[in-house]
Amino acid sequence: MKTFSITDIGMCRTMNQDYFYTSDMPVGNLPNLFLVADGMGGHNAGEYASRHTVETVVSVAQASHKTQPVEILGEAIQAANTELIEQASADGSMRGMGTTIVAAVIFDDRIYVANVGDSRLYLVDSQIRQVTRDHSFVEEMVRRGEIGREAARTHPDKNIITRAVGAAKEVEIDFFEDSLQRGMEVLLCSDGLTNMVEDEEIRRILKGQRDTAEKAERLILAANQNGGKDNVTVVVIDPFSDEVN
Questions:
Q1: Number of domains in the chain
Q2: What's the whole-number average pLDDT of the chain?
Q3: How many Cβ atoms from other residues are within 10 Å of residue 230's Cβ?
């Protein structure tokens, strides 16, 4: 397995509220773990929400006695949600904070995914396919047939999300399982990438570079060249690479 991860503040923000974690080594009973979170909230609240959520997910996963990836991820994300709710109740400056999260675990030729919010996971080979489903106001409009996919990209409310870790006492998590094939790459990212770079361009960048690090760096560059309106984080994984990290 070959992986590379990078986060960037972008061209317009003064603080990076994205946070990520990657390990291609076991984390508790998980064979590996990859996380991207995109925080929201005033002052330092968004940065705290994303960082604390990622750290809690890792800590709970390390200690979990469960054996199934979906059960471990669910337990860990719920624990992070509870901690954010409690912190926001105790500290008025943290009120209203929350974060997206997308999590992935790879076991042989299977990938297990959890997500809350609009950070995404893609599988990329000759085509690009979004595995996760955005929890956003605009995505709900697309699903109801009220607007098209192209109109959704520039809709003024596209950044309004309908689910977040820390937003409600019980967080609703979507889980996905998919198969992996040799030549396929995995991409986790915050919406700072997908709001700036179209899916097909993401695929071309990933397939146009040989080195995993260069692929991630070129994605960041493309987002910033297109405006860089938000923080951007990418995790690129080649599950079947024989290269050594």
A1: 1
A2: 93
A3: 25
